[in-house]
Amino acid sequence: MTARVFIDGQSGTTGLGIQARLEAIPQITLAELPPAERKNPAAKAEILRSVDLAILCLPNAAAEESVALIASLGDAAPRVLDASTAHRVAPGWVYGFPELAAGQEDEIRTAPRVANPGCYATGAVALLRPLVDARLIPPDFPITINAVSGYSGGGKTMIVDFESGHGPNFELYALDLEHKHIPEIVAYGGLTRRPIFVPSVGNFAQGMLVSIPLFLDDLPEKPQAAALHAALAAHYAETAYIRVLRPDNETRIEPESLNDSNDLELRVFASPDQRQAVLVAKLDNLGKGASGAAVQNLRLMLGLVD
Ligand SMILES: NC(=O)C1=CN([C@@H]2O[C@H](COP(=O)(O)OP(=O)(O)OC[C@H]3O[C@@H](n4cnc5c(N)ncnc54)[C@H](OP(=O)(O)O)[C@@H]3O)[C@@H](O)[C@H]2O)C=CC1
Ligand SMILES: CC(=O)N[C@@H](CCC(=O)OP(=O)(O)O)C(=O)O
Fold this sequence. Notes:
binds ligand 2, binds NADPH dihydro-nicotinamide-adenine-dinucleotide phosphate, single chain, six-stranded parallel beta sheet, alpha/beta, 9 helices, Dihydrodipicolinate Reductase, domain 2
């Protein structure tokens, strides 16, 4: 079986990452627009009619325009995988995190519209959802999420800033506490209370850590850290890309070792004496946080075996 795929926004950071990954899949033919036509709606409509799947790697407003254009094609409309933030909690869209819960992978296989998760949200939801489902973390528990990303997370503009020497070595941002990933973290993390999310960006290109500190005695079950590890390990036991690892005696972690992979590592660091734990997710913001996840979803949507 072969499938025709169009990447709308092919020349951006996420688009180029997806293109490189799709070129390595023999069952996929990429449909391309000439560079001068890539923002021309009429040219887009014509190419969209000819493909099985469109991947949107666009800023939110442009993604919304493309979805409206696709909807206007009626029966000729292709299925859509949107990498932007525009539709992640929108009705009619399936969240593209196959490991979320039982049945999610099957929903992605058949959905006409799939929203690829946000990079930070991937780490946060991966840590939170199994623990909320296992009733170890109540949905209304006060949660703080800290994270650091490489500068490629900010797309072309941030890449140019940092690579021309104009970026800071490190900074916290989104300190209005309104980061765009919070709604999907609430919705798919199984939370009813809005977490405090403090992202940061460092002067390195790619890689990400997402961490969630917990006072174990404030949780209703007063669990040992081992119980948190066990719940995560049980949830992800059968998955291909998510590993739950024991930190053993490590007391530090760096963000870049999963770069260029679709892998996600989860660890529960803890002090049994202090009854405190820190859940940590490591991923490549451009891998499982963007292009890698998009290709994982595309394979499911097109029925391609890994
Ligand atoms: N970078 C990351 O780590 C992640 C990014 N994403 C999401 O993916 C999307 C793209 O982000 P990213 O790749 O980083 O951004 P970039 O800025 O690197 O790329 C966006 C691309 O879209 C193009 N574009 C803008 N408007 C249109 C249009 N109307 N038609 C066709 N092309 C258009 C831009 O072209 P031009 O520059 O000429 O305007 C640019 O090439 C965003 O929604 C982002 O939130 C998701 C997960 C992670
Ligand atoms: C470092 C940096 O700026 N990161 C981006 C998030 C990465 C991203 O593109 O988020 P989506 O997955 O939702 O598209 C930000 O915080 O806005």
